[in-house]
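Example record for the data management plan.
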Amino acid sequence: MRPIGLGLRSEMRDWNPADIDADFYEVAPENWLRRDRTPLHRLRDSGCPIRMHGVSLNLGGTSTFRREFLHDLRELLDSLGVDHYSDHLAASGDAHQLYDLFPVPFDEAEVIRVADRIRDVQNALGRRIGIENTTFYTNVGPVPEAEFISRVAERADCHILLDINNIHVNQKNHGGASISEFLAAIDPARVSYLHVAGHEFDERFGLYIDTHSRPVASEAATAAGRWARMHGKDILLEWDNDIPDLATINQELACLRVSTIT
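Corresponding structural encoding:
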C-alpha cells in the first residue's frame, strides 16, 4: 500500500491533522516565505512529512529569476528539511505574476531553453526539483507532450511530478495520447510522485477545465493507483476549489489508497 497525501489549503486550517487520513502533506512555499512557520513545524514534528509545490517559478517564461525569491525559498526548504519541491512546466508571467499557467511550445528549442532555466534554479537551490506536466487549452509544437517533458527532465537532470488528471484533461480536450500511452512514455525513475484531482466540463468554452473542484475521475484514479503500485510511487490528492467537508476528503483519500492495492 503506497502513501497517500493531501494538498493542504487554508480552508483546512481548522481540521485536526489526526482526523485526516493522509500520510503526508503538500503546501505552497509562497504562502510561508518570511512568515511564522510554527504550524508547519508542528505538522512535521507530529510525524506528517511535508512536501512543497510552488506556483511562481515561471520556468517556462523568459524573465530572469528573482534571486531574492530563490534565496528565501532555499532557506525555507532547508529549515523544514523538505525533500520534495516542484513547480509547473509552464509560464506564469514575466513582467508581472499572472497567477495562471501558460504552456510552452513543444519543440526542440524549448527543450533546450527550459531545461537550462531549470538547471539555473537547481543550482541556486542546491537540489533537484520536480517539474509538473500541466493542462493546456491551446498549444503548438511537433513534439508529443510526454516526449517533451521527458526530454526536458533528462537534459535538466530533474524529477517529474506526474499529474494524472492533467494528462486526462488534455486527452479529453485535444485527443492524442491516452493516460496509459502517456505513462508508457515516461521513465518511472524520473518520477517523484503523482498528483490527482478532479475536473469539470465548461459549456461556455466547450472544454474540460482543470478546476480541482470535484472528485477524481475513475479513469485517473485507476491509472494512478496501478502506476503507483507498479513503480512504487506515492499519490497526492489536490482539491483547491469548492472544498468539501473532511468526511468527503477522507473518502477520496480512502479510494486512492484502495486503488494502489487492487
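Summary line stored alongside the record: The domain at 4-259 is CATH 3.20.20.150 (TIM Barrel).
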